[in-house]
Amino acid sequence: MIRLVKWESFIICMLLFGTTLALHVGKGVLASLTPITIAQVHYSGGGDWYGDATVIKNWLRLLRTRTDIETAEERVIIKLTDHTLYQYPMLYLVGHGNIRFTESEVEGLRDYLMNGGFLFANDDYGLNESFRREMRRVFPEQELQPIPNSHLIYNCFYELKGLPKVHEHDGEPAQGFGIFHDGRMVVYYAYSADIGDGLEDADVHPEDTPQVRELAAKMAVNIAVYALTH
Length: 230
Fold this sequence. Notes:
alpha/beta; Rossmann fold; 6 helices; 34% helix
């Protein structure tokens, strides 16, 4: 039997979330929210932003079937300079190797995050150096800070021991990092974990066991629940 935790707290948070969104709408943020859609970031320089083609579709399905969150069925592709950016409460960024934002993208992402948005970045392998560099451009006075295993993001819906390890990468342990603005986590970065790997259609990564895929699914649900209630 799947163990769910803090269900009553989750319902309360979702009710409060609606009030929070109403406040953000006045700033032009998160103006269209039913059904919830997760947008994948199409960044300009380097990196295969287009990867993980089936991740968001499967992620949204998990949210529809495992929670009371009403979602769309397919991913949306968004640029950080698009005027529709503020319609989406969550962004998903993925890639290998080097990525680089334009100055307009840096400004667009900073404004989005400071006004209620949330970014989940998935290290698809080799993303670490360039992603950290670009985050320093977005928030020059901050560094990505380790998120302890006791943090609410790991037990806001499912109770997890920390960030699950899905892909081998270089054998380093999986670790979550975050950036905060006004006490709210606005960026969650999964390093050496590759949650996206475990969310893809099963035939994309047939080496992933059902147990590993289930851990990825639970972490993805937790990330979305946390982002939508904080």
